[in-house]
From TrEMBL:
Transmembrane segments: none annotated. Keywords: Signal. This is Outer membrane protein beta-barrel domain-containing protein. It holds the Pfam family OMP_b-brl_2. InterPro entries: Autotransporte_beta_dom_sf, Beta-barrel_OMP_2. Residues 19-171 form the Outer membrane protein beta-barrel domain. Residues 1-19 form the signal peptide.
Length: 194
């Protein structure tokens, strides 16, 4: 019995020390609910939401009550577009580099409640339609800038985040078709390795 108590105490001390570390590295992944608005002069299109996913790594530099958290993420996002006859998903992949500035609202050894915001540089690929009736790929290979705001909870090594992300610029802005910047709600689960 003494061995179990000692083992539990050592594990708890390790978790406590890790939670107070000034620098963390971890992995995270999650799902997103995305909306990409498409306006076409000839078609009466309706836009809906669709589910995407994200995988990545993050680093967190704790500076007292504040922290800076850069990350590198691979994202797959989709939006739904339909007219009177057809329906299609407009999808794309991107490598995202968010740099969040955050505040530890509650900061105790085993639990942290965080609020954060910051810019996201999104290196996007081509936008693709699921249904060919909606047209070809839209060549959008460029850097898009997004803004992100959210809240998170850390319980020892686990992180849970909910955030809202919105693009600052349209994907495509031509006379016949406008593809607006994406909006997404992201739900992520992470694990601090260091």
């Amino acid at each position: 019995m003494k061995k179990w108590i000692i083992l539990f105490a050592l594990c708890f001390c390790g978790f406590t020390l890790m939670a107070q570390s000034p620098f963390n590295i971890g992995i995270h992944g999650g799902v997103s609910n995305n909306k990409i608005k498409v306006k076409d002069a000839a078609l009466g299109l309706k836009n809906g939401t669709n589910t995407g996913y994200m995988l990545g790594v993050f680093a967190r530099i704790n500076l007292g009550p504040l922290y800076v958290e850069p990350a590198l993420n691979f994202s797959h996002k989709k939006g739904e577009v339909k007219d009177e006859v057809n329906k299609s998903a407009l999808k794309y992949n991107s490598f995202d580099i968010p740099v969040m500035l955050g505040l530890h609202v509650i900061d105790v050894p085993a639990l942290k409640l965080r609020a954060y915001l910051g810019p996201v540089a999104s290196f996007t690929g081509k936008l693709k339609w699921d249904n060919e009736d909606f047209g070809d790929r839209l060549d959008n290979r460029k850097v898009m800038w997004n803004g992100k705001i959210g809240v998170g909870v850390d319980v020892w090594k686990l992180t849970f985040d909910i955030d809202f992300e919105k693009g600052f610029k349209n994907f495509q802005n031509k006379d016949y078709i406008k593809v607006k910047s994406p909006r997404s709600f992201n739900f992520t689960l992470g694990l601090k390795i260091i």
